[in-house]
């Protein structure tokens, strides 16, 4: 048994050492990747935003981080294209609520006031009250006019009459959300129009009465496969650009800024 214990300790040490090296290299690659990806952006109009963001580290003083985010947010607003609605798809089984709150705060500071939080299993939906309470606490520290904005946390999709476009709207969803409302859209179209009157424009106009604006950008946190949606309503992702980012526990401000810059620089081509 003594020999087996020694072998176990040695094996555990080797595995831990390899894991730590892997994590260190992953962090290094994550630091370099945004800069490499943004090599085509105009200097200094866009790149200085990313370089500023790389100074933010997890565990940094929250007041300094907020101050930096406000500067980044005003710079990003100068881009020709900034997403109005961002969908966050979490592919991990374990989701940390505090990190989710931090990610939402980063987006709001960058000027994104409509955010969908989606996980396949529905863990976030079960934590809606906790998320709502913590977001209310974070909102009290907003500056530059954001403090006056109310924060609304919605469970699933809600019709436009139940949310204010001037507020910060957070939609918490899982794989079961969206289907009942889509059925309602279908019933309304069939009940009001004949078959020959129904076309793509009619469907889109009716959907716009029920659903919030389609997300222009979806971030897949921790996804290993490209364009993984894990049951997110496909009819709400018709023109959505999808990007992969590190899992929500490793994500940093520079990752999000990089995706914003990449989205702002891309040319979207619509199919006929």
TrEMBL record:
EC number from the UniProt entry: 2.5.1.87
Localization in the cell: Endoplasmic reticulum membrane
Keywords carried by this UniProt record: Endoplasmic reticulum, Magnesium, Membrane, Transferase, Transmembrane, Transmembrane helix
Gene3D superfamilies (UniProt xref): Decaprenyl diphosphate synthase-like (3.40.1180.10)
Leading EC class: transferase
One Gene Ontology CC term in the entry: endoplasmic reticulum membrane
Superkingdom of this protein's organism: Eukaryota
Protein family: Belongs to the UPP synthase family.
Name of this chain's protein: ditrans,polycis-polyprenyl diphosphate synthase [(2E,6E)-farnesyldiphosphate specific]
